[in-house]
Amino acid sequence: MVNIITGKINSGKSTTITNIYQKTKKGDGFISVKRMHYDKVHGYEIMKLSDKSIKLLVVRDEFLTNDYQIACQIGPYLFLQDALDYVEKEIKQMIKNKISPIYLDEIGQLELYDQCFHNIFLEVIKANIDCYITVREDLIPKVIKKYQIQEVNIITV
Description:
alpha/beta; nine-stranded mixed β-sheet
């Protein structure tokens, strides 16, 4: 079963996915944590739910200071290859260990173009493991169609 947590931008999707994990104490996965610089998004960190470890995932182009290997970009946001590799490695291990459900924040425009979390989300789907993902409400039909999701539960926040 794919559980899609949806809503508009800044509606509390990441908070909802965290609350579900904390309430059930089952599974593992990742949420994105927004980092602000005054009133502007500086970037996002990816946080593993089970141990709260964090890794820089996204940097806004104007704040890029290191020689990071960039995997993909949407607007001014640059996604770092090493963070994506880390998430993929960790989720592959979760699949291997039959950890369920798997949480992944978020599936969106980049995945629709076969980037970012696309490959690892495909593996979760193929493994037939229950998962919780966040998706902006306007992208739900495209995500369901692209990944040929059969069993879906939509949670609106």
